[in-house]
Structures are given as structure tokens and as C-alpha cells.
Design a protein that fits this description.
333 residues; alpha/beta; Zinc Finger, Delta Prime, domain 3; 16 helices; DNA polymerase III subunit delta'; nucleotidyltransferase
Amino acid sequence: MNWQDFEQEQPFAAKMLKSSIEKNRVAHAYLYEGERGTGKRSASTLVAASLFCDNLQSNFIPCGDCVNCKRIKNGNHPDIHIVEPDGLSIKIEQIRSLRTEFSKSGVESKKKLYIIIDAEKMTIPAANSLLKFLEEPNVETTAILVTEQPQRILPTILSRCQTVSFKAIPVEVFTKKLKEAGINNTKAPLLATITNHLQEALALDGDDWFAQARKIVLNLYEVQKKGALYAMTSLQDEWIHHFKEKAQIDLGLNLLLLIYKDILYIQLGKEERLVFPDWREKFAADALQTSSRRLSEQMSAILEAKRKLNANMNPHLLMEQLVLNLQGGPSCV
């Protein structure tokens, strides 16, 4: 990631961090919080490069070619330390080791920086040890805590950090990124909608299970318009055998919801936002035969099914109720 990418994907976070570097007002400790795949770790490395680069360009952009930039990119700069979970948690020994290391003078300069990945996974003793570290800040030391779940971090630690929120990457930006990574025009919009993580999107692109899931959901949408018997048959023959785990069912419901959103987008004249572009003509025909009110009811039914799934309702019964609620579909004006 470079600053141009960062500013495009996370404009508010990038503006805040770049401004603090330009004005020489870098905080003692930052908390980067946001969902998976929003670029928190990459941003940590980028900020590190801007702080340690020997040949900063205009606007405090790291050169990428100096010794420090190369070592940061390769993860072996002596004054930058990354702490990650050892197994399922970050243990007190890891924080103690970090504190010992940081009690020494910087190898290259007085500056030091440490990054704690998945900071919410610190054990209570580790968190308390870190708190003592944060309470005695060294003016040349910068801390970056990275987390997807800030609510699991001690409030006393949060109070000592400047929070930088990372939002979901705009779908159109991530769609372009996926296309540049080799994902075709048909799949990219859908993958950009269901994940913000590049590697996960690439994995799903080559996943036979996901390809089949997409096909089954689109088929359920089609057959449910023919009547309850067709829908129930599709559930028994395809859906139930494919969507077995709770997370898989939830994903299937998300895909189904996106179909109805596509039809609504067509009604609103926002066809550039379709996530099933290869079904544009079919959805356009359906959009002429249904009302926005009916689409709203159908999407609400799917959202209610997701709520019931999270409440551990029997998934078979849940899906049977859902397809009955979806009856009428685009044939109902």
C-alpha cells in the first residue's frame, strides 16, 4: 500500500495520520480499529515507513528505496517491532519482552515503533503490562494497536490511544482492485460486496463451493416465483445439501438479499451498482413486474431470517418460512 491507495481506500484515516506526520504531532499511541480487510496492517507499515524513511518525498511520502524503507517492507527493521498472537492469545511474556527491548536505545536512531496485531487477544496480564508501558511514554516511541474488536480491549488502554477508524472500503474502489488482481467483471462486484479482504476474495474466486452457492441461490430466486412446491423442492434438492453450517447459510441469505437489491437498483436507475451484472436483462424484466414496496417486504423477510438464524432457529424451518414469505415475488405488482 502507498499513500495514494490509502487515501482512496480510507480517506478519513489517511487524512488524520498524514496530517499528524506532516505537523510533527504523531501521537504516542494509536488504535487502528475496523473490520477485517480494511487495510489496518498495511497502513501501520506505511506510517512506519513515513516515520523512518531516510529520503522522504514531498508530502512526507516514503521513497521506498532507502535502507529503512526496504527493511520495513521486509519486516526486519531493528527499531520496529511487531507483536502477534502466540497461538490464540498475546501473552504477558511477549509484552515483557517488548518492554525490555524498548528500554534499550534505538539501534538506528532514538525513534522506536511497535505494532500489536489483534490487540484484543491480549490476556489480562499482558494488557495490564502494556498499560504500564503506555502510562510511562517515551517521547520517541510510537505504539500502534490493531484490532477488529475494540470493545474487548481494556478501557484504560483505549483512553491512552488515539482511535483511527477504518471503514469498509467503497465497493467501487474494491471492485476495481479485484479486477486489477485478475478477477473477471462478472464476479468482481459480488466479491467486493461480501468481503473487504483481497486474499479472501481471490480464494472465493477460485472456490468451487462458492461458485455452486451462487448458482443455487440464483436458482432458488427463480423457482420461488413459480410457487411453493417448486421452492420447497429446490430447498430439499439443493440448498439444504449445500448450505450446512451456520456461516454458510448466512452467506447464502446475503447472496439472496443482494439479488433483490439488484432489482431495486434497476428500478432506481443505478445499474452500475449491480452485483449480478450477468443477470441484468432478467432482473430488468422482473423489475418491471414488481413494486418497490414488495421488494422492501422481501428484503425484510430475508433480514428477519438472518436474525432468526443468529437466534439459533432450526435452519430447515427457517428457510421454509422464508420461501413462503417470498412468494408472489416479481409477479406481484
